[in-house]
Protein: Riboflavin biosynthesis protein RibD
Amino acid sequence: MSTIDVLNDESYMRLALDMASKAQGQTEINPVVGCVIVREGRIVGLGAHLRRGEGHAEVHALRMAGEQAEGATAYVTLEPCSHHGRTPPCCERLIEAKVARVVVACTDPNPQVAGRGLSRLREAGIAVEVGLLEEESLRMNEMFNKFIVTRMPFVTMKSAMTLDGKLAAKSGDSRYVSGPRAREMTHTLRHRHMGIMVGAETAIVDDPELSTRLSVPAVHPVRIVVDAKLRLPPEARMLREMIAPVIVLTVAGADPGKRAALKAAGAEVIDCGDGDRVDLALAMRKLGEREIGSILLEGGGKLNGAMLELGLIDKLLLFVAPKVIGGAGAPGVFQFEGFEKMAQAIPFRDVQVERIGADIFVSGYPEYG
Ligand code: AOF
Ligand code: ZN
Structure:
């Protein structure tokens, strides 16, 4: 931002987006939404949706504005809702408050809303404008946008690899591949996702807690382990530290004794198919049914490869550490059958590159053919 933040529609919408962005990770499957109400050159109300089941952004902002909402402009990062969900429709609240103008960043993809909120406001004679900072708002809610339409969790794969594509040394040692700033970002990502998923191999070798550790308190995701053979020991650290639920994804034929032991240790064990391997597409559907709307996938290489091969990864975040570890047996970041021809490679779109401390940070969205 420059020294003088010129006041205009965009600057008020940016304030609403900033408020929304800080609530990422605390609204479960709900979107993050911010609202700013301005009348005659003064901000008279501010609000953000902070928790599922509680007030929407507009409701908080309108309550603060009180009678000053009459004739005011409301800036909202998402189309005001038109449905009776856990809370009554926001568009009716805006109409009752006699707001004159509503500026919206993007429409709500929720099939129960999808434009109805906007038409309701227009019918009531309110001036409605849509599309201001739309890209930012869409990106901020990319996980909600997928889940609300497909009921499948949005999967962000995050990994750290060496320049030669390795997750660890041949001994299995992986502390640490990337630098401290990259690791802080990882913990912020854990806060922002409802689940964190690893393979049994990683869970056994690293014995991770899979918690969110930041300099401020943060939300811990549900810990999910893909474990067809139920190799996760009941005394694993994540089961000893019950800071959040543990879900073990397995198959119908898994050993009943091990199943009972994991359950006794506090894990929820979910069957995903009756083959030798966990049916990952079915697993995603079952997690979606449990309203786990977003998952941070933190590998290993086999799970990353399998998820990519099945088209189940929505977004990739990769820290590339400027070092080479070598070793034919050292695990690679994506392990799967692979393709014969370079032309068959899975391309990524909207790729961005940044330096994070000493590391190179690459993000992008896989495009499945
Ligand atoms: C808004 N403002 O601040 C939010 C909206 O279960 P409910 O009642 O909270 O409804 C959730 C749905 O409402 C959610 O799927 C999305 O369509 C919309 N979220 N709408 O006008 C808000 N959080
Ligand atoms: Zn609403």
Summary: DSSP finds twelve helices and 14 strands in the chain.
